[in-house]
Amino acid sequence: MSYLDNIRTFVRVYELGSMSAAGRDLRISPAVTSSRISQLEEHLSVRLFQRTTRSLTPTEQGKAFYNGAKEVLESVENAEAQVVNITENPKGSLYVAAPLGVGRRLIAPLVPEFLKVYPEVRLRLRLTDRKVDLTTEGLDLAFFLGQPEDSNLRIRKIADVERVLCASPDYITRHGHPTSGDDLLGGKHECLNLRFPGASEFQWRLMTATGAKRFRVDGRYESDDGDVLTDWALGGHGIAMKPVFEVADHLKAKSLIAVARQTPPEPIQMACLFTHRRMQDPKTRLFMEFVIDRVSATIHAAEQAAQLPRYVE
Question: What distance in Å separates the CA atoms of residue 202 and residue 196, rounded to the nearest whole number?
């Protein structure tokens, strides 16, 4: 087994915090993963991880070795890029993260087309509505909705995404049709909320006659999966704030109805995050450009197809 393979395995175990997760990611068995770590520890004469039946924690030596190991792998990738016409024939694994709705509807459908053009690329797509950390999770690109918190990362804007407050016809029949954000306050309506880690309250940022305003909404339903909110809204359980492209078909079919159109949600930015070093890898650059060109057109087409009623003056 090559020393470089052992280093690569160590880096993925460190970043994912699990032997089994790293093995799945690298497509090797847990036994091979453990063996590679043991070989590396024997070579270095140190323990890189403290192992128990329930946890795996890097030692101080492991933490120190990680930074250098990461640099080794990046140096190898950069060296390969110098001697291979990688722009014409990119190779290797590309790690990409995206929110569930964005990933399922916009990113995932493009992956087969990209891999058909670049067959020697392995694309690892991770979908989650939680915030991700590019550095610790070993990601090349992360698509997201909103504003990034880490100013050290590079950002490429894709589009301003229109959003809508929507509910099922059954819900509106039973609870009434709210016309503005004020109608959502005071427990008058069941608001379906997307839970982010660390969020202490739910606020919907809506556009009013005097500009954007935060409305503190409440409801018994919350989830960290945006698609669950859509299902609840379709089931008549409340009002959801959704990107239009995610619910365009439901709006067109009238299975969801746009509400509170006097105060529509403020559009949200869709963009992708990357580090300067990652963007030096041409396959990362190629995938980003490939996605941006197609996603912006798809979003615009979905917003047109939704046929939203005009704002009520």
Answer: 10
130, 193, 249, 256 from 170: Cα distances, Å: 31, 19, 18, 9
Using CA atoms in the order 132, 292, 287, 225, what is the torsion angle rounded to 10 degrees? 30
Q: What Å distances lie between residue 149 and 4, 68, 131, 145, 159, CA to CA?
A: 34, 26, 10, 12, 18
* All residues at 6 or more sequence positions from 79 whose CB lies less than 8 Å from its CB, including other chains: none
Q: What DSSP character marks residue 109?
A: G
Coil, helix or strand for 204? strand
pLDDT in tens, 79-110: 665 655 555 678 888 999 998 889 999 999 99
Give the integer Cα–Cα distance in Å for 242 and 101. Answer: 10
Whether the predicted pLDDT of 198 surpasses 50: no
Query: Among candidates 275, 287, 299, which has minimal Cα distance to 159?
Result: 299
The encoded tokens of residue 26 equal: 């690298």
Please state the separation of Cα 92 from the chain's center in Å: 21
| Structure tokens, 148 | 């990034």
Q: At what angle do helices 19-26 and 30-44 cross, to 10 degrees?
A: 110
Cα 79 to chain centroid distance, Å, stands at 30
Answer yes or no: are the C-beta atoms of 95 and 138 closer than 8 Å. yes
Helical (H) or strand (E) element with 27: none
pTM tops 0.85, yes or no: no
- Partners of 259 in the β-ladder: 165
Q: What whole-number distance in Å separates Cα of residue 7 and Cα of residue 70?
A: 8
Q: Are 180 and 262 in contact (CB under 8 A)?
A: yes
